[in-house]
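step: validate -> pass
step: tokenize input -> pass
step: predict -> running
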Amino acid sequence: MLESLKLAVVEANKLLETSGLVRLTWGNVSEIDRASGIFGIKPSGVAYSDLTPSDIVLVSLEGEQVEGDLKPSSDTKTHLELYRAFQDIGGVTHTHSVYATAFSQAGRELPCLGTTHADHFFGAVPVCRALTPDEVAEDYEANTGKAIVESFEGINPMEMPAVLQHFHAPFTWGKSGMDSVKNSIALETCAQMALGTLQLAPSLEAIPDHILNKHYQRKHGPDAYYGQR
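step: predict -> pass
step: emit ->
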């Protein structure tokens, strides 16, 4: 069932390790087939190098495990909430990459300080609030997703495919599982650049709007001209 989807999820999860985004098994990727309303996600605690398509767990948008003998990622309910709310996304990635997680733990948004950031994220990457004691006790992973969705009121998730959860770590999404991983790579790189930039120039302000708009729109806007046709 959905064999091409499961293969894509394996390849995206393996990139987490080979790209240097994760240590141990601190991350997961999922991808959804919107036609069937089913997404595939990494099984919990399984080493990336050991993953095969038969290991990938399939989950419905109703939250039911429809295929797979292994337990899905512990973050499955968070992915589920994002798929339900952000209906244009096709993949979700969660990591504890070092620099983006540093901003998350500090509860500090990632400011857009240059064109590298502007090419991928339309402005500062927002911080999602920490969960309350009641939310943690009730359903930690589902409420994590709900808090992320809440923090995107008035924000287009396709223009800002990333969030930093306070005390936790980043989540990214994209058109596919692989696309969401690439956004995680971009986020981690931008976080590392921002930290170095702020050490050199602590009072630096964000990139001017006219440069932000130009760089984002030339790559993602209706008249984008970056890349090949």
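step: describe -> The first strand starts at residue 27 and ends at 33.
step: cleanup -> pass
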